[in-house]
Structure formats: structure tokens, C-alpha cells
């Protein structure tokens, strides 16, 4: 995701301008059927010394975006970007760079009904190569979801429309009962109990969300 090396002189020149702990600028673009979402995230790196290693920054960002995918997935009654069926899966690409005092990361997330539906897989391939063209790269950006485990027992991922904590089919059918977290204004829960039960996992993402913008697509 990041260059394999960096100029030592650049690091020392901007050292005094780097916050401690440093901030990562992450711009997330989310695509569903007829809807698009843009999210600005500013998570903190665990330590300033991490900037000395691109591998460490890269690992942190990949793990952070992978975890944040849960919060994005359960933010709306998303439908597959390519066929309009209820979404159960997501696909993510990301591209990073470094500007003076902080890492900059662009993330693209596409909602899908299933990675086993040929027409939607073809649509994802087209969308992915469009990303490559727009950023001027020869290769596809990195995919932090590429090594994820398979579906849970039962063979299906939870519906995106469901509660972020219990993830039940029932919660997906009762959309009027779902409420967004008042902190991040993104992730949805079916009850106060579910929100409290998920807080330990969600709080890192909640505090990093700086802006949420829903757009037509």
C-alpha cells in the first residue's frame, strides 16, 4: 500500500510538525445501489515512532480499515451496488500515500449481495478497474479484506440492514427500530442494549469519525 522506503531527510525535516500520537487521514467512499457515502476518519497511530516504518503504518491501517468495515456495513439498509438485491457482503480497496506530517489513505467499499453471483462479480471487476484508472495506477489498490475468513456457520453473511451487534434477520426486517449511534452518526443498533454491548468494539471507530456525508449515486 505504501512505498517501501522514504527519504530520511524528509522525516527529520517534518519531525517537529508531526502530532504525537500522529493522525492518519482516511477518506472512505462507500457505494451501494443508488446511494453513496463519504466518511472522513482521523484515527491515531499508537505511537509517533511507528512513522519510522512503512510496514508498521501499513499493517495498522489495514487492520483498522478491516475492523471499521463492520461499522460501515451496518450503517444503512444497503443494497448490492450491481444488482440492487439486499447486501450481505462488501469489497474494499485502499491506496495510501504520505504528505508531510501524516499518512493519507483512500478507501473504496462496494456493497454486494454475494461474491458467488457472476454478474455482480463482473460488475465489481469493472468498478475496481475504474478506481485503478482514476488514481492513475497500473495495479489494483490493496484489498484489506482479501484474507478474511469465510462465511459464518450457516453459509451466509449477516444482512447489511441488520443491527451491528446482534446482526439478526429480524433486526433487518424492523428498520424503524434501528437507530444510529449519536457519536459517529453512522453505525446502527436495534436497541440501547445492543449498542452498549458493542461499545468496546465500536468506540475506536466512533471517536475517529469526523464527517459523514450521504450522497446520491
UniProtKB/TrEMBL annotation:
In terms of SUPFAM superfamilies, this protein maps to: HIT/MYND zinc finger-like
- Report a single Gene Ontology molecular function: zinc ion binding
Identification of the protein by name: MYND-type domain-containing protein
Q: Name one Pfam family in it.
A: zf-MYND
- Keyword Coiled coil applies: no
MYND-type domain spans which residues?
A: 163-206
Q: Which InterPro entries match?
A: Znf_MYND
Keywords tagged on the record: Metal-binding, Zinc, Zinc-finger
The species is Heliocybe sulcata
